[in-house]
Amino acid sequence: MCQCEDTGEGMSRFTDLIEWKYMKTCKRCHEEKELSEFCKDAVEKDGLRRICNPCNREQFAQWRERQQEAEKPKNQFKRDVAASWI
What we know:
Elements: H1 8-21, E1 23-25, E2 32-34, H2 53-85
Antiparallel strand pairs: 1-2
């Protein structure tokens, strides 16, 4: 028998430890979520990304929008050059 079972207080700490193994806190939204909510990442110690999948999608969408805005002048220049060749 585990010593944790002798007192009610010890058991709750033991149960919290078990639940902790299946949960992780997102570094972006600071919500505690199940491990299935995180993508794999071989670089991280626990093998999972630091931010959850919903936050990852949101962050990627914001990045893509910024990239498209930054590329507009460059793309317009290419279109203008291509039009001048015709």
